[in-house]
């Protein structure tokens, strides 16, 4: 029977980021970290037109800068210099710019495969070991931690188990952790597209009565599209021939970037706000999408999870207790509660407000966009939320 101080179940972007934030302090304390992941990371980054991507906020850049990883990440990161927010069929709009906010960029769009490679290569094998490909089949509560039974029937005991295995976590269900799920009645269609004009680091948030749309800048003048529609409509769009899909996208988005020339593979994902009712127990933390899954249109989900990971690492390394001490874990959650409430609330309310066809609310959001451009304090608040620094003191 082997034992480790920390077992991170899920070696994706959130789990690997937590391991990276912990590893220097863990090495100093003599702790070991085991990452358990069903899908083996590739040995090398392979460029792909269809690569999925994440929008990293300015706050996330600051976290990776402290870890010394940012210079490598940004090699293939596209800066967001401006965000244009508009409401289709109405005159209200607002622009957020990096210049106005006094930052080098409002955020950065990075391909997940590249970010993963940067994280995995930075892990210290003297501290962080992999069990991969491997899955945890069962978790058994011990007096001083958890016993994990893997799919090869091997077992691993740990002081602290971190559940970072995604929004459909079967282990979360196995442990009896309830979730609050609020369906949006929308499906996100995800794809990469290429416009005829240079995007120049512009991101677009376009709201329609059928659901919001986001277009984010990527390297090689590609754009990452997130188009939320009713489920049947999203599936219809997914199955259209490329030229017909681009024509409908053009009609919905307009010609701010010229004509759309190319679209890659399209994927559909039903959308819901999902939040775990418990995020900490003695010797257990629920992290990432297993803790909270947000609507993708505001680009806040991964950034919130990264801040959670940083806060958890700071708390674990800042106390003398063992990693699984419940009082320590509860202090971590108490410290993150405001950030989580603000971020989840911001993402949810913006999504709902800008997805309604009710005339009174539609008129109100149009005036709200006008006010956002005219009222600097409101615009500053909105920008800080978008940049992932809204819960920090000004």
TrEMBL record:
<protein>
    <submittedName>
        <fullName>2-octaprenyl-6-methoxyphenol hydroxylase</fullName>
    </submittedName>
</protein>
<dbReference type="InterPro" id="IPR002938">
    <property type="entry name" value="FAD-bd"/>
</dbReference>
<dbReference type="Pfam" id="PF01494">
    <property type="entry name" value="FAD_binding_3"/>
</dbReference>
<keyword id="KW-0503">Monooxygenase</keyword>
<dbReference type="GO" id="GO:0008681">
    <property type="term" value="F:2-octaprenyl-6-methoxyphenol hydroxylase activity"/>
</dbReference>
<dbReference type="GO" id="GO:0071949">
    <property type="term" value="F:FAD binding"/>
</dbReference>
<keyword id="KW-0274">FAD</keyword>
<feature type="domain" description="FAD-binding">
    <location>
        <begin position="4"/>
        <end position="332"/>
    </location>
</feature>
<dbReference type="InterPro" id="IPR051205">
    <property type="entry name" value="UbiH/COQ6_monooxygenase"/>
</dbReference>
<dbReference type="InterPro" id="IPR010971">
    <property type="entry name" value="UbiH/COQ6"/>
</dbReference>
<keyword id="KW-0560">Oxidoreductase</keyword>
<dbReference type="InterPro" id="IPR036188">
    <property type="entry name" value="FAD/NAD-bd_sf"/>
</dbReference>
<dbReference type="GO" id="GO:0006744">
    <property type="term" value="P:ubiquinone biosynthetic process"/>
</dbReference>
<comment type="similarity">
    <text>Belongs to the UbiH/COQ6 family.</text>
</comment>
<dbReference type="InterPro" id="IPR011295">
    <property type="entry name" value="UbiH"/>
</dbReference>
<comment type="pathway">
    <text>Cofactor biosynthesis; ubiquinone biosynthesis.</text>
</comment>
<keyword id="KW-0285">Flavoprotein</keyword>
């Amino acid at each position: 029977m082997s034992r480790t101080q920390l077992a991170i179940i899920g070696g994706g972007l959130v789990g690997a980021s937590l391991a990276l934030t912990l590893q220097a302090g863990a090495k100093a304390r003599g702790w070991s970290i085991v990452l358990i992941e069903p899908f083996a990371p590739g040995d090398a980054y392979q460029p792909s037109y269809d690569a999925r991507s994440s929008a990293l906020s300015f706050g996330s850049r600051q976290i990776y800068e402290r870890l010394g990883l940012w210079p490598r990440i940004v090699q293939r990161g596209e800066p967001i210099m401006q965000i244009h927010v508009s409401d289709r069929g109405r005159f209200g709009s607002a622009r957020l710019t990096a210049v106005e906010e006094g930052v080098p960029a409002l955020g950065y769009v990075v391909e997940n495969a590249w970010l993963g490679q940067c994280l995995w290569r930075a892990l210290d094998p003297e501290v962080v070991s992999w069990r991969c490909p491997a899955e945890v089949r069962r978790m058994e509560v011990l007096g001083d931690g958890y016993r994990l039974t893997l799919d090869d029937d091997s077992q691993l005991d740990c002081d602290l188990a971190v559940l970072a295995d995604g929004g459909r976590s079967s282990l979360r269900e196995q442990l009896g952790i309830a979730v609050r799920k609020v369906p949006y009645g929308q499906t996100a269609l995800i794809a990469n597209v290429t416009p005829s004009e240079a995007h120049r680091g512009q991101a677009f948030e376009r709201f329609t009565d059928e659901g919001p749309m986001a277009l984010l800048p990527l390297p090689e003048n590609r754009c990452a599209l997130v188009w939320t529609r009713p489920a049947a409509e999203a599936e219809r769009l997914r199955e259209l021939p490329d030229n017909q899909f681009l024509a409908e996208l053009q009609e919905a988005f307009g010609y701010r970037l010229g004509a759309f020339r190319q679209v890659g593979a399209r994927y559909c994902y039903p959308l819901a706000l999902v939040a775990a009712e418990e995020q900490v127990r003695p010797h257990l933390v629920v992290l990432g999408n297993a803790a909270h899954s947000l609507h993708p249109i505001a680009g806040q989900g991964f950034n919130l999870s990264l801040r959670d990971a940083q806060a958890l690492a700071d708390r674990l390394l800042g106390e003398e207790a063992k990693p699984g001490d419940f009082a320590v874990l509860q202090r971590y959650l108490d410290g993150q509660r405001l950030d989580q409430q603000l971020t989840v609330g911001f993402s949810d309310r913006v999504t709902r407000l800008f997805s309604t066809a009710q005339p009174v609310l539609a008129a109100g959001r149009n005036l709200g966009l006008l006010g956002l451009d005219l009222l600097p304090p409101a615009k500053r608040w909105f920008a800080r939320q978008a940049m992932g620094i809204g819960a920090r003191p000004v």
